[in-house]
Amino acid sequence: MLNTLIIFLLLGLLLGGILAFASVKFHVETDPKLDEIIKALPGANCGACGYPGCSGCGTAIFEGKAPVNSCPVGGTTTATVISGILGIESDSDNIPKVARVKCNGATNAKTIYEYSGAKSCLLAKNSFSGMKACDFGCFGLGTCAVSCPFDAIEMVNGLPKVNPKKCTACGVCVKACPQFLMELIPQNQQVLVNCNNTDKGKNAMAACKVACIKCKKCEKACNFDAIHVGKVAIIDYTKCTNCGACVEVCPTHSILRYENNLIVNLHIKEEEKSGCAGCSANCER
What we know:
The protein is α+β, with helices and mostly antiparallel strands and 285 residues long. The chain folds into three domains: 30-94, 3-methyladenine DNA Glycosylase II, Chain A, domain 3; 96-187, Alpha-Beta Plaits (2-Layer Sandwich); 189-277, Alpha-Beta Plaits, CATH 3.30.70.20. The protein is built from ten helices and nine strands. The longest helix has 24 residues, at 2-25. The chain is elongated and about 85 Å long. The N and C termini lie far apart (91 Å).
């Protein structure tokens, strides 16, 4: 028994010595800039950059395979630091972004059946395309909130509410939503289209009373060519001045103005509360 222990001890020492020798003999010096870049990254390892953790992202940036602003969590500050390490000018976007949901359905959208499965938007989507009459809206089951690595999303009245102070615009919620409703927008953007329904006006309104009916009133009201209506109204955030002209003319209030995450400037006339009463929009209804 003693001889066996001695043999194993000697083998352990021999293998340890071989490994120590190999680590010295085949050691590859790394550029200190690479270590500095990795240290400059936030260390969240969320994968939002598309690389396996911050080390993978840092290596890609160092090797020139990724831009200095590849980390959405670190944002402009991190991109500027990395640019300094590499001795180049930063080409990062100076406008910070925040996640938001392109839907205001919740209780406005009709429910066609009671969903009793697991709280997963993906499972709900695979169950007869969801419990809502609108095939494009939010299911309200909170997959985006669960997926957020920074606890920046909570479900309020059946819709995701993003805390801009916690949101890092990492984009994890964007990838998690099976309805493609989450998007990253500039933090200073106040006017938003809260509908992703591409059905014709009549069908869209039959499913949700705050749906975009493609009337193009918003497009005609905009003096900055910032909003266009195709399958649904879409705002070009690079042109939008947050003037709110489109908000005032939208007959279904699918376009709203937000300040500090709260809806403002929403004027709903009594005759419009039931739907499209009094609306003269030419919207294929």
